[in-house]
Write a structure and sequence with these properties.
Oligomer: heterodimer
CATH topology of chain B: ABC transporter involved in vitamin B12 uptake, BtuC
Largest sheet of chain A: 6 strands, mixed
Strand content of chain B: under 5%
Shape of chain A: globular
Helix content of chain B: over 70%
Distance between the termini of chain B: 38 Å
Number of helices of chain A: 18
CATH class of chain B: Mainly Alpha
Number of strands of chain A: 20
Strand order of the largest sheet of chain A: 6-7-8-3-9-10
Largest sheet of chain B: 2 strands, antiparallel
Strand content of chain A: 15-25%
Number of domains of chain B: 1
Number of helices of chain B: 15
Chain lengths: 506, 327
């Protein structure tokens, strides 16, 4: 199937050979193959539901395959437990890697295999020294004695990587490692992956971001709907070929074309201040406009949006809606004034996952569907039916809990919920984070449609192609302040990154 | 993306089908079984007046349990309810010593209940303290005040008209308490299951953050629920004080646990998010029947407390077994 690639002349350290995994009613993996070579980064590419996480769980001993073989150095192997996989030198770094907040960095790195001193007690001094060496080798400027809870998410990733190195892992699996990282942190992670390569580790890299895959991967393997589609050297494919393999169709344009004719001003924010999160935020927004907010993680974008939505209160500042001064003290006020917010954290903030779809959709609109405070289920179902149909929701029934839906469909429920309130301004916070490419395109097209219908859209996004592809104007924030507003020809990746990172200002 | 003519059905399972497979149905079967068992075990059971007497075993607790059910579904709890009964009863007793008329006594009882509920509500919703800790504290506080006022004495001397709430009958064997119980069951059933407010309670209990982000005034809803629970404790205090005809500081001691037991037995998730008023009604009847049946069989008090203890453990274990059976 795949001739021995010239990039990796060595035999695979770890391979899946025709592996099948069946869950009740679902064939998650169907005779898939995957080979990881020493000193090579292999990108595993596929839409959500392609079977990537199932593969990770099989490789780390959490699931057992129902058919096919796992091979370590060409020999058949089984991983009945997570420990067995770890013993074989396989380690995984997830988005939420299991680390312990209350322990120190060194303890986290050496948990379970700490150097022992006399009487079998843990040799703390040796542990700290060795941890410092490993951290130094990956150029992580972290004191091994620091409690883990004091570290940011990026530093925690570094600790997880240090832990992987400390157990002398031969295979490192990285499952969307950059999802929560800022631009600078991502660059550092790339350097680190290069180092792992030099040390001869086999790296399995799972990501939704193509620029990333082309930047660091040597090889690729594509899955679609639990089946192996193809593999090869990254140098031999183009981005669009890879997308085509992934989705099984060609994706000609990713972002919808839009007529740019914004209408009257609908929202004006003046001098919004918060004691710690942001300062002096001011801008105006017109009907039919998509305004992008770009910045690094921690730039204060979400914090500002949540203040605009009434979750937190600004210490100073004013807003005008349709040229009238309004005070927003709670989300209920915001909704009443036509401002709605689609949060980044769908599971916790966006939807009430245990409640049925129709109840999620009607929750902020109960005033409309009810009569003098009494529920009218027929009206609720009608409203839910109308708006979920507009978003092309895929579900078994409107009575089904939202938690049973895929991420993309959950997002559609959240958006439907807000559209049902007939808002003036919709704020979308990282609207396509963690959803597959098909749903992503649907969300983008829908945003364009909303703007065309006269809704004002604010989009917070950390993905530069999305910001540039969708926005009419982009506001860049850094350290809680607006540092630039760009539009037209100025909207280039370089400008955004430069402003967001604070490089090269005059 | 092409818009396909995709139709999503409203429901796959009719509400009736769902009801037949519910916890309430199982509980109803248990109630019928206990009723039948009692009828065979004791010749005195199937007597209208005896059954009427049996309702006093649960009516006062159930009045509080309805409000408590909403509070627990919303993810909070109030353990001070029995102490509110004591404080409200003490206030009414003190007023009775000055010759206050029946109507004023009732208003005082309800007002004290409401005030205690408001005190809990402010501590939990305005100051953001955890309700379990706050109400354990106010449990000691409210009853403590009763002890300071009364010491080892008791208030009596309630006016004749006051007796009607705990000892009067509306018609034949139907007592005032039973009628109040039925009226409150209906009122709370409607509030929880048929109104926007009830929907907000479920939303908050399942995910308070998500409810807030959906424009629900979460703290306001919780505030109202604490007020309601306090008010219902006041109602229960009027009934209990009227039935006993006197007030000691130990009145209703430990009743909060029986109220919580009733709510949880009724299928309300102690962690919030789910449960129904019909479930609590049936649970109230079940607990009343068990207590009454054991009494008729001359089971000594110590054994009765063992049975109540087993019932409590059963309440926690049964949902698990129920979930396994359904699978």
């Amino acid at each position: 199937m795949s001739p021995l690639p010239k990039a990796a002349p060595l035999p695979p350290v770890l391979a899946l050979d025709g592996v099948t995994k069946v869950f009740p009613g679902v064939r998650a993996l169907s005779e898939v193959s995957l080979a990881l070579y020493p000193g090579t980064v292999t990108a595993l590419v596929g839409e959500n539901g392609a079977g990537k996480s199932t593969v990770v769980k099989i490789l780390t001993g959490i699931y057992q395959p129902d058919g096919g073989a796992i091979r370590v150095d060409g020999q058949p192997a089984t991983f009945p437990t997570a420990q067995a996989a770890a013993d074989a030198g396989i380690t995984a770094i997830h988005q939420e890697t299991v680390l312990f907040d209350e322990l120190s960095v060194a303890e986290n790195i050496y948990l379970g295999h700490a150097p022992r001193g006399r009487f079998g007690l843990i040799d703390t001094a040796a542990m700290h020294r060795k941890a410092a060496e490993i951290l130094h080798s990956i150029e992580a400027d972290i004191d091994p004695a620091t409690p883990l809870r004091d570290l940011g998410i990026a530093s925690k990733h570094l600790v997880a990587i240090a832990r992987a190195l400390s157990i002398d892992a031969r295979v490192v699996i990285m499952d969307e490692p950059t999802a929560a990282l800022s631009h600078k942190e991502i660059t550092e992670l790339y350097d680190l992956v290069d180092k792992l390569k030099q040390q001869g580790k086999a790296v399995l890299f799972i990501s939704h971001k193509f620029d990333e895959i082309f930047r660091i991967a040597d090889r690729y393997t594509v899955f679609r709907d639990g089946q192996f589609v193809g593999d090869g050297a990254i140098a031999d494919v183009t981005q669009s070929q890879l997308v085509q393999m992934m989705v099984g169709r060609s994706v000609d344009h990713i972002f919808p074309a839009r007529a740019k004719a914004p209408g009257a001003e609908v929202l004006r924010v003046v001098g919004y201040d918060h004691p710690t999160e942001f300062a002096d935020i001011g801008f105006s927004l017109r009907r039919g406009e998509i305004l992008g907010f770009y910045g690094l993680i921690g730039a204060g974008r979400s914090e500002f949006m949540q203040a605009l939505f009434g979750i937190t209160r600004p210490s100073k500042g004013a807003i005008r809606i349709d040229d009238k001064v309004r005070v927003i003290r709670s989300p209920a006020d915001a909704v009443a004034n036509g401002i709605v917010y689609v949060p980044e954290d769908r599971g916790k903030q966006g939807a009430i996952t245990a409640l049925p779809i129709f109840q999620n959709v009607t929750l902020p609109s109960l005033g409309k569907t009810s009569r003098s405070g009494f529920l009218r289920l027929a009206e609720e179902f009608k409203l839910a039916r109308d708006y979920t149909a507009r978003l092309d929701l895929r579900a078994a029934s409107l009575d089904q809990p939202v938690g049973n839906l895929s991420g993309g469909n959950q997002q559609k429920v959240v958006i439907a919920k807000w559209l049902a309130t007939q808002p003036k301004v919709i704020i979308l916070d990282e609207p396509t984070k963690g959803i597959d490419i098909g749903s992503k395109a649907a969300v983008h097209e829908f945003m364009a449609e909303l703007a065309a219908q006269g809704l004002a859209v604010i989009m917070v996004s950390s993905e530069i192609p999305e910001v540039l592809g969708m926005s009419d104007r982009v506001i860049v924030m850094r350290e809680g302040r607006i540092v630039a507003e760009v539009s037209g020809d100025q909207m280039t990746p370089e400008t955004l990154v430069r402003h967001a990172a604070g490089i090269g200002e005059d | 993306m092409t818009v396909t003519d995709r139709h999503i059905p409203d429901r796959l399972q009719s509400p009736l089908q769902r009801r037949l497979r519910s916890w309430e149905t199982l509980l109803l079967a248990v109630a019928v079984a206990i009723f039948t068992f009692n009828a065979f075990a004791s010749p005195y059971f199937l007597n209208a007046w005896n059954l009427s007497d049996a309702t006093f075993n649960f009516t006062e607790k159930a009045m509080i349990a309805f409000a408590m059910a909403l509070l627990i579904i919303a993810g909070e709890i109030d353990l001070s309810v029995a102490a509110i009964i004591a404080l409200a009863s003490t206030a009414m007793g003190a007023a009775a010593q000055f010759g206050a008329p029946t109507l004023l006594l009732v208003l005082i009882g309800l007002a004290v209940g409401l005030a205690c509920g408001a005190f809990n509500a402010v501590l939990v919703t305005v100051m953001g303290l955890p309700s379990i800790v706050v109400t354990i504290g106010t449990m000691s506080l409210f009853r403590g005040i009763s002890y300071i006022v009364l010491g080892d004495t008791a208030y009596g001397g309630y006016p004749k008209g006051f007796k009607v709430f705990g000892q009067g009958y509306v018609w034949w064997v139907f007592s005032w308490e039973l009628v109040i119980f039925v009226a409150l069951a209906l009122a709370f059933g409607v509030l929880l299951h048929l109104t926007n407010f009830g929907r907000a309670v479920y939303a908050i209990g399942n995910n308070a953050t998500g409810a807030l982000f959906s424009g629900i005034r979460v703290q306001r809803v919780k505030f109202i629920l604490f007020l309601l629970t306090g008010l219902m404790s006041g109602v229960a205090s009027v009934c209990l004080t009227s039935r006993l005809g006197s007030t000691r500081p130990s009145i209703g001691l430990g009743m909060e646990l029986e109220v919580v037991t009733m709510v949880v037995l009724g299928g309300v998730n102690i962690l919030g998010g789910s449960g129904t008023i019909p479930g609590v009604v049936i649970a109230a009847v079940v607990m009343g029947l068990v207590t009454f049946g054991l009494g008729l069989l001359n089971v000594p008090g110590i054994v009765m407390s063992i049975v109540i203890g087993l019932l409590l453990i059963g309440v926690i274990a049964l949902p698990r077994l129920w979930a396994m059976w359904r699978r």
